[in-house]
Amino acid sequence: MTDFEDVFSRAPTVVADAPGRVNLIGEHTDYNGGYVLPMAIPQRTRVELAERQDDTVRLCSANLREHPTYELGHEHRAKAWYDYVQGVTQALRESGFTLHGFDARIDSRVPIGRGLSSSAALEVAMLRALRQAFQLDLDDVALALIAQRSENDLVGAPVGVMDPLASSLADEHTAVFIDTRTLQIERIPLPRDVQIAIIDSGVSHANVGGGYALRRQECAMAAKLLGVPQLRDAYALDKIEQLPEPLHKRARHVITENARVLAAASAMRNDDPVALGGLFVESHVSMRDDFEVSVPEVDAIVERALREPAVYGARLTGGGFGGAVVVLARAGEARAAADRIARDCKGSTVVLP
């Protein structure tokens, strides 16, 4: 591992970081104008940065040997990890912010491709560093919107606003209930005597192209056929059931998932882990059967978790097609339960606690 001074022959002037996130419930609802309930995880991405007087950006990663370079104003999709940085600088410039070049070192501890928002952690950490270095007038919500734009545009991943908002606003002790249409936010503590565990299935996923993009297209098609701006605005389940296959299942997941998020927020306010755990299970079944984004390895982890006496509920977290499972367990018993689950499910590992 090479430090900043070894690569750039000077010390950084700014250091910033941002966390990954785990979504407790509310999957594929954000780009449908709905509700989500994420919280931050301890794993973070750290950016060390020093300004330059020209327009050159020089980058290095703590985990890779390559040192990519590009010029501001000439960002282009390279289909490489530094596209997330290029996306940030392009989105800032297109939003009217003035930048100079910079040198930056990135060190990420957020698991990649596991549905824990490693890309948003990188984007938000980079934006925090640039905000400080160039005194950009960006509050935390505006910063998250720039991060989303950067990933949508240059990277080409059609992600919603949840991930950057969670990385920008959430902490490890409270969930953030977000109305993704109005961007209204409420911080809600977890129920007492409850602990979150995260188990990585070992199956990687990606938000660029593939099934994620297809699901987003299917939701837009369903909304159009229902005559509503977004699926958040669809309420008549009888009309949803009249949609063609598989659009009726996609719409049914989004509508019922929004209701589950509202119920989960209420369960947390009422300190009711049993109700919350039951909603986790219902959400996973919906993602598996209606939205069809789970995989056998993830289903096996959920099924095994539900046999643990200390577990209230478990579900796939993140966009799906692999990734991780979030487990709601009794405090003090989460780690032991997670270890047993991972031991019995080949290829899986405990990410948290």
Mean pLDDT level: 95
Strand content: 15-25%
- Oligomeric state, counting identical vs distinct chains: single chain
Unreliable stretches: none
**Sheet with the most strands, sense and barrel status:** 7 strands, mixed
What is the rounded distance between the termini? Answer: 26 Å
Spell out the helices and strands N to C: HEEEEHEHHHEEEHHHHHEEHE
Please indicate the count of domains.
2
CATH architecture of the largest domain: 2-Layer Sandwich
- What is the number of E strands? 11
Structural class: alpha+beta
What is the share of helical residues? 25-40%
**CATH topology of the largest domain, anyone?**
Ribosomal Protein S5, domain 2
What is the approximate shape? globular
Account of the 3D structure:
This protein is α+β, with helices and mostly antiparallel strands and 353 residues long. The protein has two domains: 4-186, Ribosomal Protein S5, domain 2 (2-Layer Sandwich), CATH 3.30.230; 190-352, Alpha-Beta Plaits, CATH 3.30.70. The chain contains eleven helices and eleven strands. The chain has helices spanning 4-8, 83-94, 118-134, 140-155, 162-169, 210-226, 237-240, 247-269, 273-289, 296-305, 334-344; strands spanning 14-25, 35-51, 56-61, 69-71, 102-108, 174-179, 184-189, 194-200, 311-317, 324-330, 349-352. Strands 1, 2, 3, 4, 5, 6 and 7 form a seven-stranded mixed sheet that branches. Strands 9-10-8-11 form a four-stranded antiparallel sheet. A hairpin with a 7-residue loop joins strand 3 and strand 4 (69-71). Helix 2 packs across helix 4. The two termini are 26 Å apart. The model has no long low-confidence stretch (mean pLDDT 95).
